[in-house]
Amino acid sequence: GWREAVAAAAAALQAGGLVAVPTDTVYGVACLAQDSAAVRSIYSLKGRNGAKPLAICLGDVERLYRYCHVNVPDELLRDLLPGPVTLVLERSEELNKDLNPFTSLVGVRIPDHPFMRDLARACPGPLALTSANISSQGSTLTVLEFQDLWPQLSLVIDGGPIGDIQSPECRLGSTVVDLSVSGKFSIIRPG
Question: What sections of 52-122 are H helices per DSSP?
Answer without folding.
Answer: 61-67, 74-80, 114-122
